[in-house]
Amino acid sequence: MKDMRDPAAQREILVRIGRLSRGDQPRWGKMTVEQMICHLTDGYRAVLAGRNLDRVKFWIPRPLLKWIALRLPLRWPKGVRAPWEIAAGLGGTPPVDFEHDRAELVRSLNDFCEREPPRGCIHPLFGKMSSRDWMCWAYLHADHHLRQFGR
């Protein structure tokens, strides 16, 4: 499974972010490409700040869900709700300028890859996470939303 500890995985995601354009349309969901960029940025920043976002309810027990999502080579399902604090149109950062927002995403992703997520930060869906878990999540979350926009 790819994760952001691997410089090749980091480069892959950064290249895919660089390929995004203002006109990209979602293959699923309601977010615009601009909102998706801000959503990813908000997610990385929340973890680095040690913010525990509101828990998201799911029918699978958290430890099993985390293991499935982060360890099995399955694509994440579409339509899982984000915590309101980072959800587009709710508590998430609204887009300002495409290029500025993309640069902020790149900056926050680089920060995430360079720093260890704080201990005790709880994922809203998966619960307690190790450093390895966070690095897997960082890759898979970006991959999921980049595929949403055909990247």
Supply database-style keywords:
151 residues; mainly alpha; two-stranded antiparallel ribbon; 2 strands; globular
Verbal overview:
The chain is mostly helical and 151 residues long. It contains five helices and two strands, in the order H-H-H-H-E-E-H. It has a two-stranded antiparallel sheet.
Short description:
With 151 residues, the chain is an all-alpha fold.
Helix and strand topology:
Blueprint: H1 7-18, H2 33-48, H3 62-71, H4 98-114, E1 122-123, E2 127-128, H5 131-148
Antiparallel strand pairs: 1-2
- Structural class, by secondary structure, is mainly alpha
Helix content: 40-55%
Broad shape: globular
* Low-pLDDT segments, ≥5 res: none
Distance between the termini: 19 Å
Radius of gyration: 14 Å
Written as H for each helix and E for each strand, in order along the chain, the element string is HHHHEEH
Query: What's the count of strands?
Result: 2
* Tally of helical segments: 5
Strand content: under 5%
Biggest pleated-sheet summary:
2 strands, antiparallel
Mean pLDDT: 94
Biggest sheet strand line-up: 1-2
